[in-house]
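fwd from M.: "can u put these together and see what the complex looks like"

so here's what she sent:
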Amino acid sequence: NAGVTQTPKFQVLKTGQSMTLQCAQDMNHEYMSWYRQDPGMGLRLIHYSVGAGITDQGEVPNGYNVSRSTTEDFPLRLLSAAPSQTSVYFCASSLVWTGNTEAFFGQGTRLTVV
Amino acid sequence: DQQVKQNSPSLSVQEGRISILNCDYTNSMFDYFLWYKKYPAEGPTFLISISSIKDKNEDGRFTVFLNKSAKHLSLHIVPSQPGDSAVYFCAASADSGAGSYQLTFGKGTKLSVIP
């Protein structure tokens, strides 16, 4: 079982470059989300989606775009990378979201912006 | 303003003893509380949850206690095993509107179980 797959695992970007972090799940989950984890911080919600065609902002959405054209995929786009976006990014999915539903996380993408 | 606080960055416990990880919160609107465990270079994995209307939930070696009046919850691991060494995140969820919940995470506590 693949679960939640994130690519790439590591990435180095120059300031101002754009890129897309990929996230795919094969569990037919409706709810998907993106988090970032910074040193000494918990995970902070960037964007989330409750189903195909529906996305919304989380706690720290600035500088990121998302789209959800299929149930399986939820890419995160960095429009113009900044050093402040250096972080570890996690994608997660849940069957539904009722507050205590188990979320399944990918292995993370470690992004460095120089 | 941090709504979910884990004030102990690290904890060391002898194998076989009890591990107690603490979490405080400020938002009385949280409906559920969850604990996730994270190993290095992996994503977090769900461990256990508790509804805000309950005060205890148990799953094998793991028990979560909730004290709503104190806005405090704790995770007890008995007995602790070396494989439990990981970072533990406390998280809380609230309805952000239209039935959509959002998770708010604490900063995590690194548990080291010493053989």
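replying to her w this: The radius of gyration of chain A is 13 Å.
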